[in-house]
């Protein structure tokens, strides 16, 4: 099977850094009591049979890569008895499994059940070449539904799939062979020409090659602030994502002094119903280039970001890999990316940080495990759930100390607060510190 442009780019990255786990997309669920292992084993088999992307291998054929599909049953559930592990050791092992690199020539999917007498952890990891955020939610949703049916003695009933990933690849190739491709390419060349990637100033010098190692800092927006984000979006005629992304860009402007900032925004390319239930890399990064001045107001900045996002998303089908081609001599187009993941109504499994839920006879809690870390200087992921918003800052550990992004996260929440409560504030007057920290800084200055 042929690859999409995005898959070709990730395959190339894998050939350059085969030991990297930067593109591992992993989740882990703690079941109390542990699941029926036989029913779960069959549920995983049915899942992998239904979605051939999960039993794919990516190999070189002639001058480039192709996707081969292994027969059903090739990648099933691995069971491990970890009765001797305490909670801390179990979490450590879970995180190690999440970080374990994939060999794309041998597979892109693994499911491991770590079981103890009274509970168990299910780790599901997929390489990003075969999945995206919505695909991961689909995998867990179908796995939960199938498991519950089998554990109760019933046969699972899932709706028939309306499309395949190969439909997506065909549509992309048709678009690239059409006159629209030249129009989109010209638009993105204009956006990229002379742009400067926005990034937090690093704590350490850049090496000759990126290490693709990362870590994550997470913050949850207070419930009242999350509500004000929604209200501000309505009042200013933009989306909540634009409010949060605008706050991020304002903060980068304040950190760097740049007035011309460019970041990347991964966005879904599921633009038809037939692709809604397909597992695969159905996401593309678009460039968001915004100009800001210290005399602009926060409201003006948010409006500019909303306008730019609208234009970028409307042209989001043109592969970023083609926009980025040949850019290495001038440095990367993007060092910072931002995206938003929203919980789906049909999800039965929560996201990490959410309260535990009931799944049949089990209590299920998602564990905080590393995934998609070290891809860029900074990857910002906002998650929108029933309780509000959270933000994960995934940063390059070769360039930054953790304290930098602990502080950055606090500053980001401060900017979001100003965006909601005082949108007429000029960017130069947006305070990044609270009253207590300001008093400490004044005390240092007078010492």
TrEMBL record:
Cellular-component GO terms for this entry: cytosol; enterobactin synthetase complex
Gene Ontology terms for molecular function: 2,3-dihydroxybenzoate-serine ligase activity; phosphopantetheine binding
Short name of one Pfam family for this protein?
Answer: Condensation
Q: Which domain of life is it from?
A: Bacteria
- The protein, known as: Condensation domain-containing protein
Matching CDD domains: LCL_NRPS-like (cd19531)
Domain Condensation stretches = 2-441
| GO BP terms | amino acid activation for nonribosomal peptide biosynthetic process; enterobactin biosynthetic process; lipid biosynthetic process
């Amino acid at each position: 099977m042929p690859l999409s442009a995005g898959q070709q780019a990730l395959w190339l990255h894998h050939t350059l850094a085969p030991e990297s786990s930067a593109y591992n997309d992993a989740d882990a669920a703690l079941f109390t009591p542990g699941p029926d292992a036989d029913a779960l084993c069959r549920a995983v088999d049915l899942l992998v049979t239904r979605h051939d992307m999960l039993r794919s291998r990516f190999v070189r054929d002639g001058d480039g890569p192709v996707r081969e599909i292994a027969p059903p049953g090739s990648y099933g559930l691995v069971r491990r008895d970890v009765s001797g592990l305490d909670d801390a050791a179990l979490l450590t092992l879970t995180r190690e499994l999440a970080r374990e690199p994939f060999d794309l020539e041998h597979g892109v999917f693994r499911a491991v059940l770590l079981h103890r007498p009274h509970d168990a952890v299910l780790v599901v990891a997929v390489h990003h070449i075969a999945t995206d955020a919505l695909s991961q939610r689909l995998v867990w949703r179908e796995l939960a539904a199938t498991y519950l049916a089998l554990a109760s003695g019933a046969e699972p009933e899932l709706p028939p799939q309306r499309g395949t990933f190969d439909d997506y690849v065909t549509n992309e190739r048709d678009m690239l062979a059409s006159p629209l491709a030249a129009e989109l390419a010209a638009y993105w060349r204009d956006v990229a020409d002379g742009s400067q990637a926005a990034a937090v100033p690093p704590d350490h010098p850049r090496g000759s090659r990126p290490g693709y190692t990362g870590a994550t800092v997470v913050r949850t927006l207070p419930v009242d602030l999350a509500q004000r984000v929604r209200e501000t979006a309505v009042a200013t005629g933009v989306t909540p994502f634009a409010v949060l992304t605008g706050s991020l860009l304002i903060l980068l402007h304040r950190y760097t002094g740049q007035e011309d900032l460019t970041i990347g925004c991964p966005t879904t390319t599921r633009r038809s119903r037939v692709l809604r239930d397909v597992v695969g890399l159905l996401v593309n990064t678009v460039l968001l280039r915004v100009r800001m001045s210290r005399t602009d107001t926060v409201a003006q900045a948010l409006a500019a970001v909303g306008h730019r996002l609208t234009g970028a998303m409307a042209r989001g089908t043109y592969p970023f890999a083609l926009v980025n081609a040949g850019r290495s001599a001038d440095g990367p187009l993007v060092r910072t990316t931002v995206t938003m993941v929203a919980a789906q109504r049909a999800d039965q499994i929560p996201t990490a940080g959410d309260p535990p839920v009931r799944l049949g006879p089990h209590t299920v809690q998602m564990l905080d495990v590393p995934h998609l870390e070290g891809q860029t200087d900074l990857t910002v992921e906002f998650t929108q759930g029933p309780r509000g918003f959270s933000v994960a800052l995934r940063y390059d550990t070769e360039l930054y100390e953790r304290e930098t992004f602990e502080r950055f996260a606090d500053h980001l929440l401060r900017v979001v607060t100003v965006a909601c409560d005082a949108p007429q504030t000029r960017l130069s007057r947006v305070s990044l510190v609270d009253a207590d920290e300001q008093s400490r800084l004044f005390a240092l200055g007078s010492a």
